Amino acid sequence: MSRARVLADYVAGGVTAAEFDRLDGIGSAAVGLTDSQTLTNKTLTSPTLTTPALGTPASGVVTNLSGVLPVGVTGGSGLDASNIGITHASQWRVTSDFTDSASPVASNWEETDGPAGFGVLGASMTESSGIFTFPATGYWFINWIPRGRGNSSAGSRMYGEIHTTANAGSGDTYTSATMGETWLTGTGDYSSTYMDYIMDVTSTTTHKLKFVLTMGHSSNTFKGSSDQHYNHVSFIRLGDT
């Protein structure tokens, strides 16, 4: 068989002329085979694999799962042990009784400090003349439970409101975000109402709130205590804004 015929068969199988010569040990395509020559078995050298260059990943592409986990949003800071779950939670209460309405409840506030087992998670809210300021931006859950006592034989309504603003320091326009109402039937009657609200606090400077109480009879009393919760509010940060 001529070299040309053998070469043609190998080329048809995907072998180049140079590879054909290396397989036969001839070493050069210029040297031919005679009809009487046959190919001998040769050991192929292991090929060297080259890692392809992939370039720099596009912005936002995850390349590993160590450190801060990406959240997949523009400007997101990701999740780590410091911001998974609820990061701030505290409770405040009014420490003494007061009579009639208050807009806002502006005095005798304290952050809960007992009895044993109380706790504050993260940074505390701050309060000045009844205006509450958040320690961090985020979605905040606020719930308020005021308690009243009837000092008149005449029945009367009692209600509270959570007022919020997003422009504190620039007009201070507060709006009633939620209201709870109950009824005091007469002297010695106690009753509580409940309000809650989720506030998107995008700025700790401009986003604030206050609590307003209205009593239907001026002699009736809103209860307070420095030992337990009679008139109290909870602040819980749910997550990033």
Describe the structure.
With 241 residues, this protein is mainly beta. The protein contains two helices and 14 strands; from the N terminus they run ααββββββββββββββ. The protein has helices at residues 3-12, 17-24; strands spanning 88-94, 98-99, 109-111, 126-128, 131-133, 138-145, 147-149, 156-165, 175-184, 190-192, 195-201, 208-215, 221-222, 232-239. A five-stranded antiparallel β-sheet has the order 3-1-14-6-11, with no helix packed on it. Strands 4-5-12-8-9 form a five-stranded antiparallel β-sheet, with no helix packed on it. Strands 2-13-7-10 form a four-stranded antiparallel β-sheet, with no helix packed on it. Strand 4 and strand 5 form a beta hairpin.
What is the secondary structure topology, with strand pairs?
Elements: H1 3-12, H2 17-24, E1 88-94, E2 98-99, E3 109-111, E4 126-128, E5 131-133, E6 138-145, E7 147-149, E8 156-165, E9 175-184, E10 190-192, E11 195-201, E12 208-215, E13 221-222, E14 232-239
Antiparallel strand pairs: 1-3, 1-14, 2-13, 4-5, 5-12, 6-11, 6-14, 7-10, 7-13, 8-9, 8-12
Question: What is the overall pLDDT average?
Answer: 82
Number of strands: 14
What form results from the Cα inertia axes? rod-shaped
Query: How much beta, percentage-wise?
Result: 25-35%
Order of helices and strands: HHEEEEEEEEEEEEEE
**Span between termini:** 81 Å
Low-pLDDT sequence parts: 27-31
Report the structural category. mainly beta
Number of helices: 2
Helix content: under 10%
Outline the biggest β-sheet: 5 strands, antiparallel
Radius of gyration: 39 Å
* Strand line-up in the sheet with most strands: 3-1-14-6-11
